[in-house]
Design a protein that fits this description.
alpha+beta, Jelly Rolls, Herpes Virus-1, 7-stranded antiparallel β-sheet, 4-stranded antiparallel β-sheet, metal-binding, Znf_PHD
Length: about 325
């Protein structure tokens, strides 16, 4: 299970990239005097008449008579206006393209090696070099890139990175040690049912909440700025692989974070007011810091847990092949 993920600036439009550093196209007037009535026709009625009542989409430049809209408009709305097609995230790849076919782990690793050789050559890069290039790609300074991310893999179907009581014990593992780890409170399969957890009252096996997901990352595969559903805590364990770079903002600064995001990417938020709920937008932490938002970073190594707190916006990327459980 994998998704294709695209990085690279496209005039601030997240449909072609996993994030933008604030670049956007110039704002257009709603009634464009440079477009004649003969050139501009209404997408609904195919008529070029009544050009003074024509409303142009600020993203695709297509026009509609205000009286042809549903519901009709009596006057030009303030700010940017977007047609229904441009407001619909399903009509755009929005940074991630779902693959319906499965991808074997060895093929996934070969793709990672190919990307690494293309961008860094035969010599292994330093972590600083990888991080620097990642943000250059996101900001459109180094070209476009497509990578894959095996995300939201249901451990009920594909197996868990942690031992479970119903799983067969490998011959190379001591049965007592296996039993110990099966019942450990740090085993993420047990987390929802630990004493004191409100999730103990939930009876359904909700993936990602009651049942852990498994993720397979590769070089530059990213997880965009977001908070957890219902403002939950989250915990992530890196089983094996290359490090994973995290950026985090304290929960107390969530409102400040959202204000800076809207200030940096106004056109995107005009088109998609709930943009931050879609996990498709990256903004360089340096932009947040320059606007007074504190940002902290951690490099997660194999065997490390990373815990995020309620309303703590976080995002980051993988420095190579990884296997981790959130």
């Amino acid at each position: 299970v994998a998704s294709n993920e695209r990085h690279g600036n496209n005039n601030g439009t997240p449909g072609k990239n996993a994030g933008s550093a604030g670049a956007r196209k110039p704002k257009k007037r709603k009634l464009d005097a440079e477009v004649s009535q003969d050139d501009q026709v209404c997408e609904r009625c195919d008529s070029g008449l009544h050009g003074d009542a024509m409303l142009l989409c600020d993203r695709c430049d297509k026009g509609w008579h205000m009286y042809c809209l549903s519901p009709p408009l009596e006057s030009v709305p303030p700010g940017n206006w977007y047609c229904s097609d441009c407001k619909n995230p399903d009509s755009d790849c929005f940074g991630f393209v779902e693959r319906r076919n499965t991808c074997q782990l060895d093929a996934f690793k070969r793709f990672d090696d190919k990307v690494r050789r293309k961008w860094f050559g035969p010599r292994p890069p330093s972590r600083v070099q990888v991080e620097k290039l990642f943000w250059e790609i996101v900001e459109g300074k180094a070209g476009e890139l497509e990578v894959m991310y095996g995300s939201d893999i249901d451990t009920s179907d594909y197996g868990s990175g942690f031992p479970r009581l119903g799983d067969p014990v490998p011959a190379s593992v001591d049965p007592e040690a296996w039993q110990k780890y099966c019942s450990s409170p740090w085993n993420l399969n047990n987390f929802p049912n630990l004493p004191g957890s409100v999730l103990r009252t939930v009876k359904d096996k909700i993936p990602g909440v009651m049942v852990p997901w498994l993720y397979m990352g590769m070089l530059f595969s990213s997880f965009c700025w977001h908070v957890e559903d219902h403002c939950f805590y989250s915990i992530n364990y890196l089983h094996w692989g290359e490090p994973k770079c995290w950026y985090g903002v304290p929960g107390a600064e969530a409102n400040a974070f959202e204000r800076v995001m809207r200030k940096a990417l106004p056109d995107l938020f005009d088109a998609q007011p709930d943009l931050l709920f879609h996990l498709v937008t990256m903004l360089n932490p340096s932009v947040l810091q320059a606007n007074g938002v504190p940002v902290y970073s951690v490099m997660q190594e194999p065997g490390n847990f990373v815990i995020t707190f309620p309303r703590s916006y976080h995002g980051g990327f993988n420095l190579g092949n990884t296997c981790h459980t959130p």
